[in-house]
């Protein structure tokens, strides 16, 4: 069955149907990872987005049971150059097409993803729709141009209830803004007693769990859309060691008065080089974000920049000058080959050791 991708700038890409039959509207972005499509498509940070995979062959090893980053993917669609028709892997349970059908997510294959990616790089991420070939393009464009920007994705993907993952080590509260399972997995591997809480949990409730540390997870969308989360963090900075990842990194900065902005097309891939400013060391990192911290706005806050992106000099890491709090824009739990960023979990553990048993650490927030 023929299908087409229509962008709000009027561009139309023809292809063949993949996955579910439903029409789909969302923000069209591109992902440069050569592998890991299952983890990418199940990442809650893609809530409301149509993912264009730049690697030309997707689905060659199928879908297995274990490599999900969430059990209820929130993406709106998938665009690929070539979807493998005969995948092969000893752990495979489904093909990509079968899985997309099962979760009611449409896709399109046979698209010139190189051209599409170049268009997004030049004009920025934009709204788009995956619809049947027969659909009236003019009517779809009218819908796209009248659609408001995405908002509220964190509320969609965050856990609705608090739950515990018992362990015998330090107690860590993990705030779920759209958490990848990999973050929870890495914390559990350290033997921590992990309590996962919803995005809008109050600071009072978080402190009632007597945590040794607090992890702020990744998540989708604009950090400004969840002021209740920022308000809670303002109370928590200085009260307990904090480690922020991706959206958690942006929320931590905003909690101290810094600003964030929407990037032209964001960082989405598994090979982004990041420089540690103290050591000069370059780490190859996995990233997925469309917003970033405004570097100039950090000058009036108690944060210092610790990491920069080698490609565009954007802020990739910050550290509080007075309180035990730091964060990074990239994903230390995602090991797309190298494990350059795993040491951040060790730093977090050391921070908790240094401040064990203290009730209040910072003289100023």
TrEMBL record:
The active site is at residues 246, 331, 333. The keyword Acyltransferase does not apply. Gene3D superfamilies: 3.40.50.880, Carbamoyl-phosphate synthase small subunit, N-terminal domain. It catalyses: hydrogencarbonate + L-glutamine + 2 ATP + H2O = carbamoyl phosphate + L-glutamate + 2 ADP + phosphate + 2 H(+); L-glutamine + H2O = L-glutamate + NH4(+). Its EC number is 6.3.5.5. Residues 1-170 are annotated as: CPSase. L-glutamine binds at residues 45, 219, 221, 247, 250, 288, 290-291. Keywords: Amino-acid biosynthesis, Arginine biosynthesis, ATP-binding, Glutamine amidotransferase, Ligase, Nucleotide-binding, Pyrimidine biosynthesis. Pathway: Amino-acid biosynthesis; L-arginine biosynthesis; carbamoyl phosphate from bicarbonate: step 1/1; Pyrimidine metabolism; UMP biosynthesis via de novo pathway; (S)-dihydroorotate from bicarbonate: step 1/3. Small subunit of the glutamine-dependent carbamoyl phosphate synthetase (CPSase). CPSase catalyzes the formation of carbamoyl phosphate from the ammonia moiety of glutamine, carbonate, and phosphate donated by ATP, constituting the first step of 2 biosynthetic pathways, one leading to arginine and/or urea and the other to pyrimidine nucleotides. The small subunit (glutamine amidotransferase) binds and cleaves glutamine to supply the large subunit with the substrate ammonia. This is Carbamoyl phosphate synthase small chain. The gene is pyrAA.
């Amino acid at each position: 069955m023929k299908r087409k991708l229509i962008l709000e700038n009027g561009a139309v890409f023809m292809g063949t149907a993949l996955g579910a039959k439903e029409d789909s509207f969302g923000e069209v972005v591109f992902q440069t990872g050569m592998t890991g499509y299952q983890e990418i498509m199940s990442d809650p940070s893609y809530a409301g987005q149509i993912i264009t995979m730049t690697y030309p062959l997707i689905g060659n090893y199928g879908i297995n049971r274990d490599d999900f980053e969430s059990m209820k993917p929130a993406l709106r669609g998938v665009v690929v150059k070539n979807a493998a028709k005969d995948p092969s892997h000893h752990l495979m349970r489904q093909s990509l097409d079968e899985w997309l059908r099962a979760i009611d997510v449409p896709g399109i294959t046979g698209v010139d993803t190189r051209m599409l990616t170049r268009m997004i790089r030049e004009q920025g991420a934009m709204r788009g729709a995956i619809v049947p070939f027969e659909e009236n393009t003019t009517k779809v464009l009218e819908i796209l141009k009248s659609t408001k920007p995405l908002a509220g994705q964190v509320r969609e993907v965050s856990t609705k209830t608090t739950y515990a993952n018992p362990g015998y080590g330090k107690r860590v509260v993990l705030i779920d803004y759209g958490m990848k399972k990999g973050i929870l997995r890495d914390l559990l591997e350290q033997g921590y007693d992990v309590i996962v809480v919803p995005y809008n949990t109050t600071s009072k409730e978080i402190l009632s769990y007597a945590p040794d540390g607090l992890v702020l997870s990744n998540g989708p969308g604009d950090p400004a859309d969840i002021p209740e989360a920022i308000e809670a963090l303002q109370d928590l900075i200085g009260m307990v060691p904090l480690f922020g990842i991706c959206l958690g990194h942006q929320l931590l900065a905003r909690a101290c008065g810094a600003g964030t902005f929407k990037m032209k097309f964001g960082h989405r891939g598994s090979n982004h080089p990041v420089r540690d400013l103290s050591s000069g060391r370059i780490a190859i990192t996995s990233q997925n974000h469309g917003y970033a911290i405004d570097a100039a706005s950090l000058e009036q806050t108690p944060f210092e920049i610790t990491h920069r992106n080698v490609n565009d000099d954007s802020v990739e890491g910050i550290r509080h000058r007075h309180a035990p709090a730091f964060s990074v824009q990239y994903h230390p739990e995602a090991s797309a080959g190298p494990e350059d960023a795993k040491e951040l979990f060790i730093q977090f553990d050391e921070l908790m050791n240094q401040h064990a048993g203290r009730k209040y650490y910072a003289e100023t927030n």
